[in-house]
Amino acid sequence: MAIHLTFTYLLCPVPLFLFDSDLQRVIRETGSLLIAFFVGALSTIIGTIGAFALIPLKSLGEEGWKVASALCSRHIGGAINFVAVADTLQIEGSIIRKARVCIVLLYELVC
Fold it and tell me: In the chain, how many domains are there?
């Protein structure tokens, strides 16, 4: 319910701001930062595919590739992307909770 309200009333108006923006100017002024973002995003996608090939998340069954996709999107665009991809791919709530716990545990181990 909260996710639906967030997407409907808070996030849906955000793309409307893009209608008034000059995309050529944005691309010209961001320059190397935009290139760095695309390189980082592509590297994250390649890394996710490689990691999933090594560790296929078999314990999640058919949901494994969905969780890998949601985690990949989280690393590219933040937690809201994780929620959006998980919602789009219709990942079960219990599996989403397990994935979030794993994220927190991994960050605690690394940081």
Answer: 1
pLDDT in tens, 14-57: 666 777 778 788 888 888 898 999 999 999 999 999 998 998 87
Q: What angle do CA 26, 28, 34 make, to 5 degrees?
A: 75
Cα dist from 102 to 29, 42, 55, 98, 105, whole Å: 38, 23, 14, 6, 5
CB atoms within 10 A of CB 36: 11
Provide the domain limits for residue 87. Answer: 2-110
For 60-101, the pLDDT digits (tens) are 788 889 999 999 999 999 888 888 899 899 998 888 888 888
Query: Are 34 and 27 contacting, i.e. CB atoms less than 8 angstroms apart?
Result: yes
30, two tokens: 């961001």
Contact 82, 88 (CB under 8 A): no
